[in-house]
Structure formats: structure tokens, C-alpha cells
Design a protein that fits this description.
The protein is an alpha/beta fold. 43% of the residues lie in helices and 14% in strands. It is elongated.
Amino acid sequence: MSTTPSERDTLLAIALDMTASLSARDRLERLVDAVVRALPCDAAVLLRSVGDELVPIAARGLSKDIFGRRFPRSDHPRLDVLCRASGPTLFPADSSLPDPYDGLVVDAPHLDVHSCLGCPLRVEGQLVGVLTADALAPGAFDRVDLRFLEHLAALAAAAVRTSDLIDALERAATHRGLVARELVRDVLDRRGGMLLGEGEAMQRVRREIELVAGADLPVLVTGETGVGKELVVRTLHASSRRRDEPLVYVNCAALPESIIESELFGHVRGAFTGATDARPGKFRVADGASLFLDEIGELPLHVQPKLLRALQEGEVQPVGADNVARVDVRIFAATNRDLAEETRAGRFRADLLHRLDVCRIRVPPLREHPEDIALLAGHFADRARRRLGVGPIRIAADAREALTRGEWPGNVRELENTLSRAILRAVARTAQGETVIVRGGDLALDAPSGSRATPELSPPTDKPLREAVRDYERVLIQRALANHGGNWAAAARSLGLDRGNLHHLAKRLGLR
């Protein structure tokens, strides 16, 4: 017996619904509606298989309380028969097996003699659910084509699996959005939670962030080391239209030149020695989200054309791949270098600078808003109190005056580090639970700021040569870092080293 036009229309409608932009619930509800239209039934139920139980997910002709019930297969032999069957099953009208819906069918208190059929729903041999239909009239299903039921069951199984996949994707997307928001919030909390400062310089930064955050354009954040460029970028992202997506971070100065292209754009398996697995790269990880390129001025020249193409065309080409991948990424970049000067010196491409420098935010150094030093010091003191688990921390007048007079070449980062050390000194002389008072002498600001805490270079004379050389290397690196505000790339240039080699040497010397 071939399928009728009505049956073909039903199957086509279900297939079209599976490709329509419907919610998972709507898709399943429409599937059951189609079953009721196609079969001479008074009730139809779609159940999902969950372990050894069947759970109703869509129904027609039954009381609403069915959705609060679960049907263990061991308690409902008819449903168990359907689950074990290889195809559609039509039960005899006088079957002695109890009906799981007895008392639940609308206008039928008891299901004694009636018509009942069902189909197991399988995808690749795995049971995903069951479809059942009941009619109050005996023999109602006698003329139903079993092949039509098989086709109907196949589409229903696919619909249930599609529904499950959509639900999983929606949950994953929701979870990812929550995680992204929590990560941004956590970083903001750890770094101050907000841009602190009431002076005109910081007010200007806030106005610029408000202006450009909502526009899906690249933003170049500039400023000296330690002024808070990363906090500005994360505040921009948290205020942008992509705030529910991750902000993927890349430190261009910390990556050896040999792997930075792979880190940004990915690679295929076997692209180079050691590439045992394919890697997507940060651009593809950030697809649909935002990418923060920190210390962009340190990006090697040979990588810059590929970054330019990613910005211009939205295309990235993994190392060793013949094809390109399309990405939708918003770029935030930060640097403490004068990129215009770098361009004139031939170390940075002018066309790349023009692509990055669509919106620019300059974060002012601390010397341009010294009126905010006291506010920042209070914030750092309160954060230190929470971390150390001590009583209230107060900054004495002489300490506040000394902080305000400081030069702070390392800016806010140096201010926080200096104050943290001072608080530790004050805590050491304070009884548990008492107020910790930070005094001017705790700050150790007597030495000129340029030489503060800089190691001496006196060569040791009482150690073996190898050990003495290691100590000397260690001191040279520490001095270079101190002279460049903790900037490893700048320290590497001053020492005549590749920045990747400096990182490796510092790790070997115990400095990282």
C-alpha cells in the first residue's frame, strides 16, 4: 500500500518544520499536531527516553498533568514493548496490557477496549523516544499504512534529536555568556572593578569609552607602562555589544616569533615540526567575540601583513593551510610605544597602523592626574585588607604626602606595588585585629624613583665563576626590567636579546 497524498503532505510538513527557525518546543508541538491530523486518533504523545524512563515532551488529547509524570518502562509494559520493538506496533483492541494513559485521556475516564499504536524512535540505532497514538474507537488504526508509520517515526526521531541538540546548544550558549560575563567581572574586580579617578584626565577617558564602546570598530589604547590600558580594554568590552562573548587575550610581546603566527591564526596538522594536532588560533577562537592584542607594537614585521588581512577582509589563513577562514572579530589593541615613530623607523607597517587606529584612547600617566593618587591609594589599601585578612588599613598624613610627591614612572602599577610593600611592613608591627597604619617610612621612597629597588651590579668575588656569572646575568635582567617599568620587550631590546630568548633565560635564572 502506497502512502496517500495526505500522508505525504504530513511527512513533508514535519520535514519542513525541522529546518524552520522554530524553538525546540514549537517544533515538537507541531510534530504532534501533524500526527493528530494524519491519524484517526483522540490522543497522541511524544516521549523522550531518559535512562529507563520515558518523559512526555509534547501531547494532544491528554490532561495537562501528564507533563508532571514520568513513565518507568518497568511499570508500563506497553511502553516497554514499544521500546524493544524494531518498528511500529499495533496493539489488539482487547490487549490485557494496562494502558499508561488510563484516566489521562480527555473525556475518557478509563481506557478499556480501544485502539493503541506506537513507534520506537531511534537515531543510529539509539533509542531517543517513543511516539504513541490512542483512539477510543476499536479498529480505528486497522487501515493505517505501517510504512507511513515507519517514515513518521524516522522523522519524529530526527525531530527529537534535533530538539535535544538545540537545547544543548542554547544551554551552552547561555552558559558561555554567563561565564564570559563572570570572567570579565572577575578581572575587573581583581584590577579595581572600575576606572578610578575624579580628575579631568580620567573623566575624559570615561567619556571616550562611552563614545566608542558601542561601535563595532577597532580601538587602539595607548599609554605608558602601568597606566591601566588592560583595564580600559576590559571596560570597553564590558560596555560593548559583544559583552556576553569572551574577550580573548594575546600578549604579543610574550610570544616567541617562531610561534606567534600559529598562536594568532592557527595551523594545520603537520604544518611544522611538532604540529601533531591542528590548532584554530586566537582569531578563530574569538570569532563572534572580541580579541585583545596587548603590546601590539611588539608584533614582528613578518606577521603584520596577515593581521592586516584579518582586519581588512575578515580572513585568516592557518599556517600550512591552502584555504582561508572567515571570522567576525572586534579588535582591541594596546601599546606603550609610539607607533607613528615605529612606522617611521620601519618596525611597524603604516597601513596596519591606519587599520588599528580607527578609534584611539590615550590613558594618561599618573603625573597628569596626581589629584587621584589619594583615591587610588585608598582603593589599593582596602583591597590589600581583604587579601591579607587584617583589620582596617589607614594611610597616615605623611605617607599620603609622600605618595603625592612621588614621580611614579611605573604609574598606577608602581603605586600599587609600593603601597602593598608598605602595608606588609605596617602589618608586621601591628597586633591582630588592630588598625594598620601606614606611615611615610614604610614607603621606602627616599631613593630616586629611577633607581628605586634597582639591584646593585657589584661583581661577587667569593663564588665559583659559573655561579657568579648567573648572579650577574640575573642582576642585569632585573636592572633592565626596573629601568623599563617591567616591560619585558623593552628590557630585551636594551639587552640586545630576542624577547623570547629573554623569557627563557629569565625562567632558567629563576626570575619567572
